[in-house]
Write a structure and sequence with these properties.
By secondary structure, the protein is an alpha+beta fold. It has 62 helices and 44 strands. A hairpin with a 6-residue loop joins β40 (about 1810-1815) and β41. The longest helix is centred in the middle third of the chain and has 30 residues, at about 760-790.
Length: about 1900
């Protein structure tokens, strides 16, 4: 019960003491005059009666009423109800206050509480003074106050016969209940009746209509802004001209804040005299009359709400955080539904009849219900984060803000963070956190309606229904009895204030009023207190917290699979399966970015602690610490998710033994995290643990747990651990907790204890208080130790305090944490400044830790009610605890230094080739990323494979790095990068600048010409001596003193290393020495060759099958003077010469010459006069030219002795020889070295008159002229002299300074103007610029057209037009260097013509290649992003320009040859660019060279036999080191690659074949590309050995042999697109824009190194998919293919390769020997061709036919019967056959008869018409083999098998393609047992075969 009114006061106008214009209020009377004991009289009440100031008024205003609110020193509110009326001023007052009347009038008009429209003027000059009746009460019953004061005023005005004293006395003695929903009828003794209803619940605010009015005045958005501003402690100022509205607005805003109470300055009506209060620094809610708006605008940090204008002004400097989404938008929409229900219906086509809107009072409750619901959503689950620190004597409760924010998912939310830190929320916790108290609507809502609210969120109508239900409850709380009788209170009549009052308000009799009050007080003392007992209950906690918005955690979604990985990894660690754990660790570290995985880790580790597995070995310890660090590095300083809290007991549990008596705990390795230096974290942890122990104190013994488990156990379900309510919930054990109903939470226990407290005896109460205090005290000691563990670094001697770590030691030196990126948080300022330690440098670590702990202890012990004596004792103990711990740490640190260093990853040994040996074992290095992005996971994505940690190995063949990526997230991928030692082009020392010191700056960068780069730094364990040794050994292997030291020559040959190197002085050994060597080697190698090897064509016919003579060494006698007679081949060669000859015949040149029909060696080696060219053995002793092969093609008419003289005119004696002849135009291609310029002697002799005997120079020149004439004469088309009209007859525009003499006709290719013309007229650019080194000049369209004798170039591959061959051509074009051609004597008959071109030199190739290397394999990352920098570097290198020039010149030569002119390429020394051009010309002109066999012949002939200087250009030895690497051969391969790209169907070999040769020509794995010429190879004994002895599966010495072996096993060198058009001459585009960068330069395979050593590239076989031994599911075979890591062709083979592999696998499974891939492929193609032929009649051209090539050009069938034999030839009309004279078109239309029988699948044995053994000659260069042939007349086929009983057909000849069968001519390489004469005998069985086949043909 409480008094309705405490004081009644009468306040009147009084003059101001200082005589100012305004008056002041004077209290005339107050009742009771004595203050109540429980409620003293509020001072300054007169200011609030007239808030705008006391002023006189010229009119009589109507009475006004408002309620002001005063707050006393105890924060209690006093409601001052003021009723003001105006009375005429008495003359004395009037006299005093007549000054400035007008001003006062104006002020009263503006600032008066009400308008003047209802005022009436009094007599002229009459002034009226305000008088106020004031009722002061602690209760807020504004209507009752209005009625009561109104009654008193009515009695006075109307003159009712009622004593005012009685009424006032009754008013002051009226007692009403506070709450409980009762109603009380009161009467003040004037015939009045009022009913007072008390609210049901005292805690719910009473708002009447104030909230609804506030929304009407300001609108939804503005009110929400004010709501957020008030909650986040901003200053809010209301402006209005109405005082009542100011009161209502403030009351409404406070009602919205429920259940929080506003605890700052609250003044709904602020008097004008107190306006300076607005500049207070604290938050406030204040109302001010709108007249003072100007003063309000000066305030910079105040939010101003203008109620009259409906605006809210927020200053720029103020930020109001909005409600978290989705609550903001949800609240907004619900409010609009409540305030404007018609909004939902506004768009309906047929709106329902208008719905009845709620009354204002009801709407007010609905609006409040929305906000009540909002708070329930915001604070849902708050009770799970309360810490019960003390229960007795009074509850002490703390709220765990961090855990609450973390669980709600609002860590970053500014609004909620500020609300939780505000004073209102602190009051909420202390008031509502109490576990045993009365509950109200909010408690019910939070506890029981959460699920419903979540479910309703997406259904607005259901939300509205809920809001209306809540509004009903709120309304019922305010109006428990709605149908109550109305008040009955007298009111004054209309306009009663205008009537002249009979007298002023009388002075009341104080004695009488006091007597009434005393009487009532005495009565009250006698009566029993009618106090309704409050109903207290245990406050329900409600469901546990959930996130306010389920945010998906993106990349780290906590899938069950991730948690499974974490659990597995921990299991592996504790089971000692370290390798398995290491495999999973990167995935675990990645998973630990997610919260659930971190919780899972803490739970799993906790289980292992409970199982007494806390003592670990070193590896386990490292793993556990690493995972803990990974968890902690993402924790913020507040630890919202409880991860650090969960790990805190674990870091003091896990340990390892360093030595007897010394144990290192995990805490010493996880100190480097900001959370440990955050006081708030320690407080939350402390309170959590205290709560656990307090709870354990009161639990009954049956429920009690093992004390050891209780202590420090923070992870059990609602357990005795310190985080029962704060940290256990975050760790996801809610479900577990709810199922265990027997375990009561700490709040339940506290509630029970509070209920029992009043019933306990005083002694028992005292005992419980002491127990609780000692529990808190013991925990404080425990935490002092814990904090010292985590704050004192392992090495505390480093006494520098870093501010970042808040007194926790120097990070770099004093912490051995494994996390390198320290997370710096700073709380240093919070206590360093307090404790006066400004200079952190001088402060010691232990002192700082002691202060930090002392501050913590002070705070928590004071809050927890620990006595001051205990607290003093604690302060004494803390330094001792810290000192003891420091002493322990010293021993730990000492022992930890003795631990072996971190175990480095195991060295991975590389796989070696057979014969490859390790020279230097693995040196630990780090492989750093270079400029290539792919390996480092650059912009293209992919894994960061580099940097990698591993070792570098040096073997006799390669430099190999093997290792693993240092990035743990990449996984255990093995990284291999290697290159052949011989390919090293540059080695340089580098310095690496790295942020961490783990790398030494001692680095090495190795670059190879196979486009590999090893950029590495040696590990610290590798001494500088080892690094230096590595460099020296590498240098020694790269540049051996002699060629015999290379890997290819040392491999497998025991005798070669012992050979002494050749004496350097013996530069030109005598001819006799040479011949001896030659013969020795011939004897040693050739002699045993023919017995074993039959593949190549045999030696000379005379000695077929005879063993070579053994005593030939001295039979050769050659004079050293080189007389001409020795060079003339005798008609009968000696046996030794014949042996040499037979070996020379075997060479590639000779085989190719025979194919081209350029000459044969008949039995007598005499020349067949009919042939224009002959094979000359003049150079068989390499006497004329050491770099040429032994057999040369020369014109028939030239004598051998003349060649000696001709050779002197050319550089290196490389005189012109024929190397190829066109099959169609019969034009020949010649090659030679450049011409010698005329010597000085020649110049002098030229000035003298010609003597009859010519000088040597002149004779040479004449010999040269004769030789060229002989070449021209040898060409059938130019044998007559009709070809004199040459190109020079067209125009002399290009004759200028380049013409050496008036007689010469010189065509120059360097006119710049013509180059421009070429760009206009020839878009294909075939005749584009042939640019010289100076980048100027060009080959004009005009000249090119004249050279080719045709118009603009044809489209690629188009046939030449009919006018292609013209007679106006030179017979021979000499293409040479511009500078060198000046010495050529022009042809007097103009049968040859000079074409001077500018070519690049080899040094330019070398420079260009260096730049290309740097572009493709840059040493450092590019400065510009993307491919721009690569393209710039590529352009700077000019590599593609050189390729363009080569292709351009080659296409020019091809055109000339194709038009019938012969060409002599005579550039530089004749072994570099000449070789490139000549090889390209043959490749483009002759389809044979585009096969595997043909390309091999081309390289052997043009590059090896004709002496390209491989050793010199590749710098193979120490002598060549200075010259460097010049990749002439690689450039040629690049040109071939460009042609291959443009004509993919014309090459039998794949692009991989070119890369393979490009890699191995520099690798020294094979002997093929060693040395500079055949002469050197013979001298070293390599030439015939290479082709001779086979050693089974021994290492291949020849690259060709290796290719051949490998081709049988795999189709890697084969091009499936191969479908050549016959006799196709290729004319590729050569513009730079048409050229592509060869992927050989840019691709790499980090999984296994370069893929060109096939044995190494295959890798170990993958295990089959089987069940795992542990019974789990089979492992998936899926794998990720990374372009820079995996070998893509092997990981993802093309469809055909995959099918062939599958075929072989299935055959193996069936137990059959697998068929060779080539046979299967040929069979498929043959079958497909057959199908194509069937369809041919219907379609004019069948794709199948065009795409499937015929491999049979011609087939020779050889029959052997007894001692004599006969040959017959089947000439096939294949459209591929170049030799076929018959027209192919006629036969193509003829449908194959065999197709008629294709539907019959009868066994082949049933269709055998005739059969027998025949010898069959295979493809080119294959030997003759006996086959079993079957003639099948039914299928019209001639099939053949390996032997008679063979069931599998090896091939067939479709007789539809056979034109005729005739006896054959003798062929080179026929079986040796067949006598020569047998070729001309007629054998009956041969005739039988002829007859049978003929009859079959005639049948068709």
């Amino acid at each position: 019960m409480a008094r309705l009114a405490d004081y009644f006061v009468l306040v009147a106008f009084g003059p101001h003491p200082r005589g100012s214009a305004e008056g002041q209020g004077q209290i005339l009377q107050r009742f009771p005059e004595k203050d109540w004991e429980d409620n003293p009289f509020p001072q300054g009440i007169e200011l609030f009666c007239q808030p705008s100031g006391w002023q006189l008024c010229p009119e009589r205003n109507p009475p006004t009423f408002f309620v002001a609110v005063l707050t006393d020193i105890n924060s209690e509110r006093h409601y001052c109800a003021c009723l003001t009326f105006w009375e005429p001023v008495e003359p004395t007052q009037e006299g005093l206050c007549t000054e400035d009347t007008a001003e006062r009038e104006e002020e009263a008009g503006e600032g008066g509480p009400v308008g003047l429209s209802t005022a009436a003027p009094g007599p002229p000059g009459q002034l009226f003074a305000p008088k106020t009746l004031v009722l002061v009460s602690r209760l807020d019953h504004a209507e009752v106050f209005r009625n009561s004061l109104g009654l008193i005023y009515t009695i006075h005005v109307e003159g009712l016969n009622v004593g005012l004293e009685n009424v006032v006395g009754n008013l002051l003695t009226c007692i009403i209940p506070l709450a409980g929903g009762s109603q009380r009828t009161i009467s003040l003794g004037a015939g009045d009746r009022q009913v007072i209803q008390t609210p049901l619940t005292d805690s719910l605010p009473i708002s009447r209509c104030s909230v609804a009015l506030l929304f009407r005045q300001l609108g939804i958005t503005n009110v929400l802004s004010l709501f957020c501003a008030a909650l986040t402690e901003h200053k809010v100022l209301f402006l209005s001209r109405s005082y009542q509205r100011l009161s209502d607005a403030c009351r409404g805003l406070l009602a919205l804040l429920f259940p929080l109470r506003y605890s700052f300055t609250y003044v709904p009506i602020l008097p004008a005299q107190l306006l300076e209060v607005l500049s207070t620094p604290t938050p406030f809610i204040i109302g001010v009359n709108a007249a003072f708006q100007a003063e309000a605008q000066e305030l910079l940090d105040v939010i101003v709400a203008d109620l009259d204008g409906g605006t809210v002004t927020v200053p720029e400097c103020v930020h109001i955080p909005p409600l978290p989404e989705p609550l903001q938008s949800q609240t907004h929409s619900i409010l609009s539904m409540v305030l404007d229900p018609e909004l939902e219906l506004a768009d309906l086509a047929f709106p329902p009849p208008t719905t009845s809107t709620s009354s204002l009072k009801m709407q007010d409750k609905e609006l409040r219900a929305v906000f009540l619901r909002l708070f329930a959503q915001l604070l849902q689950g708050y009770r799970w984060c309360l810490h019960m620190v003390r229960i007795h004597p009074e509850p002490v409760i703390r709220f765990h803000k961090a855990a609450f924010l973390g669980q709600r998912g609002l860590v970053e939310d500014d609004f909620l963070m500020k609300v939780l830190e505000g004073m209102a929320f602190a009051g909420f916790v202390s008031e509502r956190g109490v576990p045993y108290r009365p509950t109200d609507l909010f408690d019910e809502l939070v506890a029981h309606e959460v699920a419903r609210m979540r479910a309703d969120d997406s259904h607005p109508q259901r939300v509205l229904r809920h809001v209306k239900e809540l509004a009903e409850q709120l309304y019922k709380n305010e109006n428990p009895y709605p149908a109550v009788a109305m008040h009955k209170v007298q009111r004054p009549g209309e306009a009663s204030h205008l009537r002249r009052a009979p007298r002023p308000f009388p002075r009341l009799d104080e004695g009488m009023v006091q007597w009434i009050v005393d009487q009532a007080t005495a009565k009250m003392q006698g009566a029993p207190p009618a106090v309704k007992a409050e109903k207290k209950t245990t406050v329900p906690s409600g469901p546990p917290m959930t996130a306010i918005l389920e945010r998906s955690s993106g990349l780290h979604g906590n899938s069950a699979r991730r948690l499974e990985v974490v659990r597995n990894c921990i299991s592996y660690v504790f089971e000692g399966k370290m390798l398995e754990a290491k495999k999973l660790l990167p995935a675990v570290l990645r998973a630990l970015k997610g919260r659930a995985a971190r919780r899972c880790l803490a739970q799993e580790l906790h289980l292992h602690v409970q199982q007494n597995r806390a003592v670990l070995d070193h590896q386990q310890f490292d793993f556990v610490v690493r995972m803990m660090n990974c968890c902690l590095q993402d924790c913020t300083s507040l630890d919202e998710h409880g991860i650090a809290a969960a790990l805190l007991p674990l870091v003091t549990a896990f340990c390892r033994k360093l030595s007897p008596g010394v144990t290192q705990f995990a805490y010493s390795c996880v100190q480097e995290h900001v959370v440990w230096s955050t006081p708030q974290f320690w407080e939350a942890m402390f309170y959590g643990d205290v709560q656990t122990h307090i709870r354990a104190l009161y639990l009954e013994p049956a429920e009690d747990r093992d004390p050891s488990q209780v202590c420090g156990d923070s992870l059990g379900p609602r357990d005795g651990a310190g985080l029962a309510l704060a940290h256990v919930r975050p760790l996801g054990q809610v479900g577990e907790a709810l199922t265990q109903e027997d375990e009561r939470s700490a709040l339940d226990v506290a509630s029970e204890q509070r209920r029992l407290w009043p019933t306990l005896s005083r002694e028992k109460q005292q005992e419980l208080v002491q127990k609780e205090e000692s529990t808190v005290f013991s925990q404080a000691i425990h935490y002092a130790s814990r904090m010292s563990y985590l704050l004192l670094p392992l090495d505390s001697s480093k006494s520098r305090l870093l501010r970042e770590r808040a007194g926790l030691g120097d990070l770099e030196s004093a912490s051995n944490s494994l996390v390198t990126n320290s997370m710096a948080g700073s709380v240093a300022e919070s206590y360093d400044t307090e404790s006066g330690f400004e200079d952190a440098e001088t402060c010691d670590v232990p002192g700082a830790v002691v202060r930090f702990i002392n501050r913590f202890v002070d705070k928590v012990c004071t809050e927890s009610g620990v006595t001051s004596d205990h607290l003093k004792g604690l302060h004494v103990m803390v330094p001792d605890i810290v000192q003891m711990h420091i002493e322990t740490l010293e021993a730990v640190q000492r022992e930890s230094k003795r631990l072996p260093p971190i175990q480095k990853p195991k060295l991975l040994r590389p796989r070696l080739l057979p014969g490859e040996e390790c020279v230097l074992d693995g040196l630990r290095v780090y492989l750093l990323p270079d400029g290539r992005e792919e390996g480092a996971g650059g912009s293209r994505g992919g894994p960061a494979l580099l940097p990698a940690e591993g070792a570098v190995f040096l073997t006799t063949y390669r430099v190999i790095f093997t290792g693993m990526p240092t990035d743990p997230l990449v996984g255990e991928q093995v990284v291999v990068r290697s290159f052949p030692v011989a390919a090293l082009t540059k080695e340089e020392r580098i310095n690496i600048q790295t942020p961490s010191d783990q790398y030494l700056p001692d680095g090495l960068q190795l670059r190879s010409c196979t486009f590999q780069l090893l950029k590495m730094v040696f590990d610290e364990e590798v001494g500088s001596d080892s690094a230096e040794l590595f460099r020296k050994q590498l240098h020694k292997l790269r540049y051996p003193p002699d060629i015999r030291g290379t890997f290819a020559l040392t491999l497998g040959s025991a005798h070669t290393p012992g050979r002494p190197p050749r004496a350097t002085k013996d530069k030109g050994p005598s001819f006799r020495t040479l011949s001896r060597n030659l013969m020795k080697n011939a004897k040693r190698t050739i002699g045993r060759q023919y017995v074993t090897r039959k593949k190549y064509s045999p030696p000379s016919w005379e000695h077929r099958g005879q063993p070579p003579p053994g005593d030939q060494e001295d039979e050769i006698s050659v004079s050293e003077e080189l007389e001409p007679s020795t060079l003339t081949p005798s008609l009968a060669l000696k046996p030794s010469d014949r042996m040499t000859m037979s070996s020379l015949v075997e060479r590639a040149c000779c085989r190719d010459y025979q194919r081209l029909g350029l000459g044969t060696l008949s039995s007598s080696l005499s020349r067949a006069k009919s042939e224009p060219f002959r094979i000359s053995p003049v150079n068989r002793m390499y006497a004329i030219c050491r770099s040429y092969p032994g057999l040369l093609i020369v014109p028939q008419s030239v004598q051998d002795n003349a060649l000696q003289r001709v050779s002197r005119c050319y550089r290196q004696n490389r005189f012109p020889v024929v190397c190829w002849r066109s099959g169609r135009s019969k034009a020949v291609l010649l090659r030679s070295g450049g011409l010698h310029g005329k010597g000085v002697v020649g110049l002098f002799k030229a000035q003298n008159a010609p003597s009859p005997g010519q000088s040597q120079a002149d004779s040479s020149s004449l010999e040269q002229e004769k030789y060229l004439q002989a070449v021209v004469s040898s060409m059938p088309r130019y044998a007559d002299a009709s070809g004199r009209n040459t190109l020079s007859g067209f125009s002399s525009a290009h004759m200028g300074s380049h013409v050496p003499s008036p007689r010469a006709r010189v065509t120059t290719l360097s006119n710049p103007m013509a180059a421009l013309a070429s760009r206009r007229t020839a878009p294909r650019g075939k005749w584009g610029s042939v640019r010289a080194g100076g980048r100027s000049g060009g080959l004009s369209t005009d000249v090119g057209t004249r050279l080719a004798g045709m118009g603009p170039p044809q489209a690629n591959g188009a046939p030449p037009d009919p006018g292609f061959l013209r007679p106006q051509r030179a017979a021979l074009y000499i293409i040479g260097d511009k500078a060198q051609l000046k010495g050529v004597r022009p042809d007097p008959l103009q049968q040859w013509e000079l074409v001077p071109i500018e070519v690049f030199e080899t040094r330019q190739v070398k420079g260009s290649f260096k730049k290309l290397l740097k572009a493709c394999v840059p040493g450092y990352p590019a400065t510009e992003p993307g491919s721009a920098s690569f393209l710039c570097s590529l352009e700077d290198s000019e590599w593609l320009i050189q390729i363009h020039k080569l292709l351009q010149v080659s296409v020019l030569v091809v055109e000339l040859l194709d038009s019938g002119s012969s060409v002599l390429v005579s550039l530089e020394d004749g072994w570099d660019i000449t070789t490139q051009v000549v090889s390209l010309v043959q490749l483009l002109s002759d389809p044979f060279y585009r096969t595997l066999e043909g390309f091999r012949l081309l390289v052997e002939k043009e590059w090896l036999s004709f002496g390209h200087r491989f050793s010199h250009r590749g710098a193979h030895t120490l002598a060549g080191q200075s010259s460097g690497f010049t990749p002439v051969f690689l450039q040629f391969l690049d040109c071939v690659h460009q042609v291959h790209l443009q004509f993919p169907m014309e090459f039998e070999f794949s692009p991989f074949y070119l890369k393979f040769l490009g890699y191995h020509h520099a690798s020294h794995r094979f002997r093929t590309f060693l040395l500079d010429s055949d002469y050197e190879r013979i001298e070293l004994g390599l030439l015939y050995e290479e082709k001779g002895e086979r050693r089974g599966q021994a290492a291949c010495r020849s690259v060709w042999e290796y290719v051949e072996r490998l081709s049988k096993r795999t189709p890697v060198f084969y091009n499936y697109l191969y479908a050549p058009e016959d006799a196709e001459v290729l004319r590729p585009y050569s513009n730079v824009s048409n050229l592509k960068v060869w992927d050989f330069y840019t691709e790499e395979t980090l999984a296994e190194g370069p893929p060109y050593d096939w044995e190494l590239a295959q890798g170990p076989p993958e295990p089959p998919e089987e069940e795992r031994p542990d019974g789990g599911a089979p492992q998936s075979r899926r794998r990720v293919v990374w372009p820079c890591y995996d070998n893509c062709p092997r990981a993802q083979p093309d469809a055909i390769s995959q099918l062939l592999e599958e075929l072989q696998r299935l055959e193996t499974e069936l137990g059959r020997p697998p068929e060779r891939w080539k046979d299967a492929w040929d069979r498929v193609k043959a079958a497909q061709r057959l199908e194509g032929r069937q369809d041919e009649r219907g379609t004019p051209s069948s794709l199948l036919v065009s795409s499937v090539p015929h491999h049979r050009r011609s087939l020779g069938v050889y029959l052997q019967e007894g001692p004599v034999g006969s040959t017959l030839s089947l000439s096939l009309d294949s459209d591929q056959s170049s030799g076929s004279s018959a027209s192919g078109s006629r036969q193509a239309a003829r449908r194959s008869t065999s197709t008629l029988y294709s539907q019959f699948q009868t066994a082949e044995s049933e269709n055998r018409s005739y059969e027998g053994t025949l010898y069959k000659k295979g493809a080119f260069m294959k030997p003759w083999k006996a086959r079993w042939f079957v003639l099948d007349k039914t299928k019209h086929q001639l099939r053949y098998y390996d032997h008679r009983v063979d069931t599998e057909c090896k091939g067939f000849i479709d007789l539809a393609e056979v034109e005729a069968v005739a006896p054959g001519t003798p062929t080179l390489g026929a079986p040796k047992t067949v006598d020569e004469k047998a070729f001309f005998d007629d054998v009956p069985s041969a005739q039988q075969w002829v007859d049978q086949i003929q009859s079959c043909l005639s049948d068709a």
